[in-house]
Amino acid sequence: MRVIIADDEVLLREGLARLLREAGVDVLATVGTPDDLRHRVAIDGPDAVIVDIRMPPTQTDEGLVVADALRTAHPRLGIVILSHHLDSRYAVGLIERHAEGVGYLLKERVSDVAVLVDALRRVCDGECVVDPTIAARLIRRREATSPLTDLTPREREVLGLMAEGRSNPEICAGLFLSTKTVEAHVRQIFQKLGLREDASGHRRVLAVLEHLRSTDPPRHR
Fold it and tell me: What's the CATH class of domain 2-130?
């Protein structure tokens, strides 16, 4: 797996590079600006990139902007977005724009190299990965008018694991349920959220989006 890291914090990007190399990941380059990232991706053709949301010059959403541009130019490129902040709007926007091959992780978790390597492998395989910390906190903020209120506690638990990017077999192992039981829960989730089999897009991703939207805290102006 060939990876490029983009973060304007030198210590963080070099620390990540060292951890990933020790884990057997081929880190092609580390860069500090969106322009440098575009340049290195064009030259090196990595399997995935790790990008901080806040990058120069404005330290707002340059990481998301360059990630969008890179996925347009390189549709098979896996992208893992990093953030210091727990803000589900970023996760929702990211998944809406790219339903496959993207991940959103909090920086506080990537010190566990196994978490980061797992996310990189998943996005390279076309999966969508949302940090478990985000999913766990969001599920406690359900709004009274949310479609999620129709779900049973077990179905909400299954949906929370889906929001972490877990596959059905992983949900079975995590909840000690049979494959048929988990499949039944997933079908019920799709049905209660109004996601038909012929609905446009990926139903699993759409369900996660509904989960994130419905649990997003109100925005203050």
Answer: alpha beta
